[in-house]
Amino acid sequence: LKVEDNQAMIISRYCLDARAYHTDKVPMTWGECTLRTWLNDTFMNEIFSAEEIETIVPKTIVNNDNPHYGTEGGEDTTDSIFFLSDAEVSEFFPDPDSRRAQPTAYAVAQGAYLNTKNGNTWWWLRTPGVRPVDVCGVSAYGNVTGYGSRDVNRPSGAIRPVLWVTFGD
Predict the structure, then answer these.
(1) Is-contact 148 129, C-beta < 8 A?
(2) Alpha carbons 116 and 96: distance in angstroms, whole number
(3) Is residue 36 within 8 Å of residue 69, measured between CB atoms?
(4) Are 81 and 40 in contact (CB under 8 A)?
């Protein structure tokens, strides 16, 4: 997605898993959600080797309010693995075709939504929705749901992780 000095911001080509953003349907921000904790602990340690983890760079993640409705985004966080915001997804993927993503077979087995017409899934962003119990996402057709039609406890949300890695000397 982006290169700065000897670091690259990368995103998975596929949606790798499916999980709820948070275990309960309560007002939630990225900084407090159970999915963020899982990504930066369990997921990272199960997916990457110790040597690979050494190349992952924790970054300060700005959690802006929803730009349309003002729903609070919460405090900025420091994360090794995270999701894009609605602004970032529009910056890096400027059109719906580029935002579409397919789930892995594992993600589908874990409950990821599968659109049978195009083989794509919807995936989580970290931007809050119109209500504090909603989160924005990208639809199976590549549309950004800026109003956040995804309840935080919806288990069919696909995971398309983003991380910064170092390369070279």
Answers:
(1) yes
(2) 18
(3) no
(4) yes
pTM beyond 0.70, yes or no: yes
DSSP letter string, the chain: -EEETTEEEEE-SSB-EE--SSSSSS---GGG-HHHHHIIIIIHHHHS-HHHHHHB--EEE--PPPTTT-----S-EEESEE---HHHHHHHS-SHHHH-BPBPHHHHHTT----TTTS-B-EEEEEE-SSTTEEEEE-TTS-B-TT--EETT-TT-EE--EEEEE---
pLDDT in tens, 68-94: 999 999 999 999 999 999 999 999 999
Buried b vs exposed e over 149-169: b needs ≥16 C-beta within 10 Å?
bbbbbbebbbbbbbbbbeeee
Backbone angles phi, psi at 135, to 5 degrees: -135, 145
Tens of pLDDT, residue by residue over 32-74, are 999 999 999 999 999 999 999 999 999 999 999 999 999 999 9
Place of tokens 């760079």: 57
